[in-house]
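Hey all, sorry for the wall of text incoming. These are the two entities for the joint prediction.
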Amino acid sequence: MDRAADAAFLERIADFCDRYTPLVALDPPDGLILDITGCAHLLNGEDRLHADIKKRLAALGITVRASIAGTPEAAKALARFGRERIVPAGGEPDAVAPLPAAALDLAPQTVQALSRAGLKTVGALAERPRPPLAARFGADLVARLAGVLGERDLRITPRRPMPPTMAERSFAEPIGLEADMLEALRSLASHVCGSLETRGEGGRSFEAAFFRTDGRVFRIGIETVEPQRDPAVLIRLFRERLGALPDPLDPGFGFDFIRLAVIASEPAAMPQTSLDGSEAAEQEVSDLIDRLIARFGRDAVRRFVAVDSHIPELAARTVPALGAAEDGTPWIPPEAQSRPIHLFDPPQPIETLAEVPDGPPLRFRWRRAMHDIARAEGPERIAAEWWRADGLTRDYYRVEDGAGRRYWVFREGLYGLEAERPRWFLHGIFP
Amino acid sequence: MPTELDRLRAKLSAFARHPMHDPVPSPGGERKTGLGPADLDRFLEGGLGRGALHEIFAAGPLDAGAAAGFAAALTRRVLDDASAEKNGTDKTVVWVRQAFVNVEAGSLYGPGLAGLGLDPADLVLVEAKDPLGVLKAGLEAARCSALGAVVIEPWGAPKVLDFTASRRLALAASEAGTTVLLLRLQAEPQQSAAETRWRVAAGPSRPLAANAPGAAAFTIELLRHRTGPAGRRWHLEWDHGQCLFTQPARRAPLPRPVVSLPQRGSHPAPLPAERTRTGT
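and here's what came out:
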């Protein structure tokens, strides 16, 4: 038995069931719980929905036992231990009465104890007064009994959080062309954007889910720098994203259901055009960044942030442009050109020849080439941060070789104090 | 006798001509950015054309830093004029770089860019894994008219970067009015649609006190200029305070003699034979 494969398969079926409701929970090893509150009418009633699930999954070669009831526990008990049925509202006590006590999903010892006491069915348990039951068999039994009888209604914990806004569409005939898919997305996007606008919000993260007829689901996500509610922009981003997928969406026999969900949204003011068009320009730039992120991934598009540190490689770093905080540490321009334009991280080891052990080098070898130093300035001593035990003091020199190339080299460790034979590194290159 | 309506119309058309209300200025060779030294700017007939493609070749494998510095300094020059033209907007710079450059030549360092006068906060860095990605991102950025400048930095001489690709970049640059700098490392010049082509090497700096290395210095050679003469070298220094290139008074010795143009006079001297006039 391959538990991992079984779990993966269950996940795939759960993906498939996402088409009926966004609230799908796993009931391992072989069950799924769907919260269809408010969804049944989309398929013209619970019995149609029930039949549709059974028909579609049967077409995929999966045998299903499915029941619909007012609470997840009741539906589960019926599906696993009784006949498949659709319980009308309030009919749970009658429906579950003939089920064996094991349907309460209890520990085997408890079931055995109940059986010894002559309580073999749920109906028998339901007739008993609850407090003695709780005292004898534990509060858990009573809670489960209440769930199965429809007296206590706990919501399921869905696999995916419920998106605040979404739109979906199913197709009588599956579609497979990218143009058609984008066209379908466009109509969903205008729907979603309309409701975002009504709420005065813009989406920061969107997800399109494409449901293939054979049950596979492809999810394509995009993220934006600014809250976005322009359908045209969304479609352009999705087109970029689809174009940049490492393995393109395989339509197979086509997609018959598409859903567009807003995963995260933020308040966004009404668009207002100013006279000098500066907002328009900003908007254009953030649209460009969104497109680049959609195509190259969020880690490929970066911005510089200043960090309050005197260790050179820590003083500046790049972060993904998406979600980069605007108000970080301000950039303090360094003293005229005391910092290189290219920085090696980690620093590159070099071999040096120096006149005196704690002076600048006379020449150094880097990448198998020898560089004679014509001019040097330094040292600029940068001590390790004292709260880190392992750092060594660095003495930085700006040096220029005979050809006019300027390098930033440092000696790691104070000669004779921190290191017997300090090592040299090349850290950067000046223009 | 002009009526009230005519006067209003005249007033309106005056507004319309005002650059503030013209977010997309007409592209073309009119918009030029001077680099600083009068001699160089006169040779370039006013300076470097904005809304055009310019190629910068690093002279050797160790000149990647100098080439990047030159590109950053040029960007700084271009930004000043571009944002003055558009009322202070358009200062974002997109720098597209092939990830391998970071391994080979080091990553761009914010404080170093700030030292050249380019605010790192205005910079958006795009790292692509392959040359095709670099080109695609660069083209996408070049088409955006709201950017101050775009720097595209692929590694080596990939096949995808042919004449057609450079033509596409040049077209996008002129349509959007964005200045595009194509920074080429480990590559030899080949046919391209760039307006100018430069070869940049690090130049000896003027030493400061106690023989310390001085300000950023470059030896640049204009290899090609679509609309004018080419084939000259300059030794430039970057004046970080004024954000201008300067020509150091005491010139460092150059590897080979250079032809100089007259310092004064509106007409350039007849071109010597070894200077070439190129164009498409």
